[in-house]
Design brief:
heterodimer, A: alpha+beta, four-stranded antiparallel β-sheet, 4 helices, 4 strands, B: 100 residues, alpha+beta, three-stranded antiparallel β-sheet, 39% helix
């Protein structure tokens, strides 16, 4: 996936057929992290249980909103314009912001499914097919996250990979 | 749903709610984890706090090298707001009462 053009708050990318398919698969997996994964505090704070509940409700509500945004994006006929080698797609800065949250949720959720290991697990003989899927999902999500981050930060000028 | 970060102290509510909650006596802390990308954490700090990249990177490196970083000291309400924002990005952030 390559940034082709960055104008104001619009970012146009070119991606190969396989990359577009992988991105769709990743987005379809959202959400993976349960709202109860996060806790507000490690210590004592006023109305702790009540505030924890509010946090989980806020996260749940945000997940529902992102889920709708993902569904809408995937069903938008003009979003991915087919070209010879793959697709071109334009995303606004705001869209990239929620896409980063969605992709990172899928990455973290896959890491949790692997048992939240301290070290990045390696592919080795005997590893289960499920673990391979989670590992691949983590790495793919990181790939797209880095492409989006490079685009919005200006680190990678358009046309470079 | 998983609830593996819950602990028994969750049940030990402090029902104070005093006027000190309005004072900047709450710390927003970001904890290190082995999964969030360094560039991603920097970006989130820039977006949530409006920091320049240099400051965001410095704070990210504190998290990475020291295991945690104190991001800001706020009133309870504002500290909760920041923790909510950071957790929306799936960063491991909490608020703690300033012991001092």
């Amino acid at each position: 996936m390559k940034l082709i053009r960055a104008e104001q708050d619009q970012f146009e990318f070119e991606m190969r057929f396989g990359e577009q398919a992988r991105m769709r698969q990743l987005l379809q997996r959202y959400p993976l992290v349960p709202a109860s994964h996060h806790r507000l505090s490690r210590g004592k704070i006023p109305k702790r249980a009540e505030n924890q509940q509010l946090l989980e409700e806020a996260l749940q509500s945000q997940r529902e909103e992102h889920r709708k945004q993902v569904e809408s994006l995937l069903n938008e006929p003009q979003r991915f314009v087919q070209i010879e080698r793959g697709y071109r797609a334009t995303f606004s800065r705001g869209e990239i912001e929620w896409l980063l949250q969605v992709l990172n949720d899928v990455r973290i959720g896959s890491w949790l499914a692997l048992g939240a290991p301290e070290e990045h697990p390696e592919l080795k003989p005997g590893i289960s097919a499920k673990a391979v899927l989670h590992l691949a999902t983590m790495d793919l999500a990181a790939f797209f996250e880095m492409r989006f981050l490079s685009a919005v930060s200006g680190d990678l000028p358009p046309g470079q990979e | 749903m998983s609830s593996h970060f819950r602990d028994t102290t969750l049940e030990q509510d402090e029902q104070t709610g005093s006027s000190t909650d309005l004072e900047p006596g709450y710390l927003v802390i970001c904890w290190n984890d082995p999964v969030n990308l360094m560039q991603y954490v920097t970006h989130v700090f820039q977006v949530v706090f409006g920091w320049e990249r240099k400051k965001a990177e410095k704070k990210m490196l504190e998290v990475h090298n020291d295991g945690k970083s104190l991001l800001t000291r706020e009133s309870l309400e504002k500290a909760e707001f920041y923790v909510h924002q950071l957790q929306k990005y799936n960063l491991h952030a909490t608020l703690e009462k300033n012991a001092k």
